[in-house]
Amino acid sequence: MTLLHPDRLFPVDPTTRAIARSLFATVETAPIVSPHGHTDPRWWGENPAFGDPASLLVQPDHYVLRMLVSQGVTYAELGIGPGAEPDPRKVWRTFAAQYHLFRGTPSRLWLDHALSEVFGIHARLSPETADAAYDAIDAALKTEAFRPRALYERFGIEVIATTDSALDDLAQHRAARDGWTGRVIPTYRPDAVVDPEFEGFAANLDRLGAITGCDTATWAGYLEAHRLRRACFIEMGATATDHGHPTARTADLAQSDAAALFDRVRGGTCSADDAELFRAQMLTEHARMSCEDGLVMQLHAGVHRNHNTAVFRAIGRDRGFDIPTQGAFVDALKPLLNAVGMDPRLRLILFTLDEDTYARELAPLAGVWPCLRLGPPWWFHDSFEGMRRFRQLATETAGFANTAGFNDDTRALLSIPARHDVARRVDCAFLAELVTSHRLDEDEAFAIAPQLAHGLARAVYNL
């Protein structure tokens, strides 16, 4: 028995399927370029052994958590928060007993891939197979072959970017460079010091000032602190920034008005409207900085994070209660684009959770503004159907060249090869359909496939 059919995600039509197979054969084992993700830098710096199957595959995965919680499983039963179950085997059994809930979801594809391709487990996870799977995974995790750096090499990763706070000391990135040839680079994520509604914002600004030696009580000193931190990230190999904002709104205030806004924000007297305007202004300020230092910007907008206030207060972020919101980009991005959008030094990659914007807003924007690229389907749309919808809605207006290839955007190390496998299969299937419908020559499809697999990501992220 195998958990993975060799023709999974390929077209049903035999002629189209044959072309998809041939295309996929050229990229199946190509290097993995992972320019945006959330793996723990400590994995690469310290190369620790993973603890147990539950802490590796269940507890950190917000896709898994949200499905189980939606069906009445408590966080405590999953070993998280107040009253947490201390036995990881019991947590794993709870997960296995509910594995049927993931039928038809991308999580099922990723998990099956990890079980079969990484651990050699070919029996479907269930209450009956839970203990055998646990024992096999637990035994593997005790070996050197399953430490993070060994898995990096086994998976064929060429480069992987983490996402790091502007306040991070990057010590793990320095450690990763010591005696190891893997390429792990940081990404500058300034949310904690640009979002007035971020917890501990005032203290974060104080810390930013202490780290940089800048006077972050002033607008000029605050901006200089960002420039210095960005320079530190660049020194450690960073090629990009990442901005996780509630909306894509940008602003281009006169500097005197921006300074006055900063004073209100810094003093803790700003309104919700002021907070949104400040985030908007800082996107434009970071775009200007990118024109200076070359860091590629990524904007992940349109999600209501921590929708369940009680869960956020009890056990923190990234526990499944993040919900997509309606997106808007045309008017929202206009101030930034009119300020620096024609500068050839700027590159801004856009991500959305509102698929309605692909054809109506994002593809037309990226199809004309030279600084813009479309990021791949993100989060809730990182799936077979989501990837197909993206190609169908965006390609006719933006083409392939105005997209950023694929990035896995994950904190789950074992799902990285699975996610790239899915993306490559979907893209090869899409290209095959263009060939059989005579919209693309076959040789063109073979030229495009490696670009979608890794070439565009390398180019767009300056890797």
Features:
single chain; 3-stranded parallel sheet; 7% strand; 20 helices; 463 residues; uronate isomerase, domain 2, chain A; 4-stranded parallel sheet; alpha/beta; 2 domains; 11 strands; TIM Barrel
Give a quick rundown of the structure.
This protein has helices at residues 14-27, 41-46, 53-57, 62-70, 88-97, 106-118, 130-141, 148-154, 171-176, 191-194, 201-212, 219-235, 255-266, 272-293, 309-315, 330-340, 357-366, 384-398, 416-436, 442-460; strands spanning 32-34, 157-161, 164-165, 184-185, 188-189, 243-245, 297-301, 303-304, 323-324, 348-351, 372-374.
Please give a structural write-up.
The chain is an alpha/beta fold and 463 residues long. The chain has 2 domains: 14-49 and 148-460, Metal-dependent hydrolases (TIM Barrel, Alpha-Beta Barrel), CATH 3.20.20; 50-146, uronate isomerase, domain 2, chain A (Orthogonal Bundle), CATH 1.10.2020. It has helices spanning 14-27, 41-46, 53-57, 62-70, 88-97, 106-118, 130-141, 148-154, 171-176, 191-194, 201-212, 219-235, 255-266, 272-293, 309-315, 330-340, 357-366, 384-398, 416-436, 442-460, and strands at 32-34, 157-161, 164-165, 184-185, 188-189, 243-245, 297-301, 303-304, 323-324, 348-351, 372-374. The strands form 4 sheets. The chain has a 4-stranded parallel beta sheet with strand order 6-7-10-11, with helices on one face. A 3-stranded parallel beta sheet has the order 1-2-4. A two-stranded parallel ribbon has the order 3-5. Helix 17 (357-366) links the parallel strand 10 and strand 11. It is globular, with a radius of gyration of 22 Å.
